[in-house]
Amino acid sequence: MIKVTTSPTIRLDSQVKALQAAGHTIINLTVGELDFETPKPVLTAVAQALQANHNKYTTPQGLPSLRQAITQYLFKQHGLSYTPDQVIVTNGAKQALYSAFQVLLHPGDEVLVPMPAWVSYGEQIHLAGGQVVPIQLDAIAQSITERTTVLVLNYPNNPTGAVYSPSQLAILAKLAEQHHLWVVSDEIYERIIYPGTTFQSFGQLYPSRTIIVNGVSKSGAMTGWRVGYAAGPDEIITAMTALQSHLCGNVNNIAQIAAQAALQLDDSIWQTFMQQLLERRTTIMNWMKQQPQLQCIPPQGAFYCWLNIQGVTADSEEFCERLLHRWQVALVPGKYFGQDGYVRLSFAHSLTDITLALQRISQCVDSYDIL
User: Which in 10, 160, 171, 248 has the greatest CB count within 10 A?
Assistant: First the structure.
């Protein structure tokens, strides 16, 4: 029997919500869930779909109109050329990742995962019979063996907010091609890019063996709608579709219609979102200047700050427990992402909550006896 552990970030978020339900006023900066309202054009499209009684089964691969919208979006944003047959719609980007690993891996296959990494990669790879090989990018060549099958990329990165430069991506593409690797490129945060940073989809460099994973949860403020997608080579998308036909049949068709509307939103809506995120990021980085015990490289994308707390303690779980129970702020221990001595702070929340949370984090840091 395969043993599966619960996602630690979801487990922590559930714990925090239970404390909140019990009357505790906790500022929850754990999950990556934007506090913005789902844009009105999306809600209008849903209302129209409900009135039109769109409540029947759809193809396991996804609504043809949505898959067409995805190809148009990928071409507009990144110059990527896919046909609708090379796209599958899934229950969130998480299911796209799961399905990709299921069809790509055989028992014992090795998967290169740069650290720190999102918490679910390891369990999903394990469920597909693969073996996780944690790596640092500067040592990737030495980590490749005859069992290496897949390279996982995630940028902007969760939890660090880092974005690979075009030169780094070129090196990775050359290495992947040389060793005939599959690449699963998790690009769910691709629209959240801050000034001075350039995003390039890996599909531009190595399309023949790259599976791009994305969705509308982050870019559309639609986490609960659960619509993601993957784009890639025909044989992989065909296999993922066959798996999905047995796994869940199809994604909720009303949510698919919502996702199509989200992909076709006017850019001005997203620009408003980005202005608020940039203000929050600036607030945190200004606060960091007054925190000599903490360090943080400004995130280039996404909405996370990866705080180095080693000037306070190397135990990220203990730090987060203390912060939660004594100071009523919830962050995620870096240990969950494979790198202790750090914590992840999500600024997908109101500036008011963030400002108050930063004050409390300062108080928590000051409560330690710094040696």
Answer: 160
HSE-CB at 185 with a 13 A cutoff on CA atoms is: 28
Q: How many helices (H) and strands (E) does the chain have?
A: 12, 12
Residues 156 and 199: their CA atoms lie apart, in Å, by 8
**C-alpha to C-alpha distance for 189 and 118, rounded to whole angstroms:** 13
Question: Tokens 């199809």 sit at which residue?
Answer: 250
In the sheet where 332-333 sits, what is the strand order?
A: 304-308, 342-346, 332-333
- Look up the pTM and report it: 0.94
What percent of the chain is predicted at pLDDT more than 70? 99
Helices 92-104, 120-127: axis angle to 10 degrees equals: 40
User: Tens digit of pLDDT for each residue in 92-148?
Assistant: 999 999 999 999 999 999 999 999 999 999 999 999 999 999 999 889 999 999 999
| Other residues' Cβ atoms within 10 Å of the Cβ of residue 326 | 12
- What is each CA distance from 256 to 24, 68, 260, 309, in whole angstroms? 37, 12, 6, 41
Q: How far apart are the first and last CA of the chain?
A: 47
Q: SS3 letters for 339-370? A: CCCEEEEECCCCHHHHHHHHHHHHHHHHCCCC
Burial of 271 (0-12, 13-18, 19+ CB in 10 A): exposed
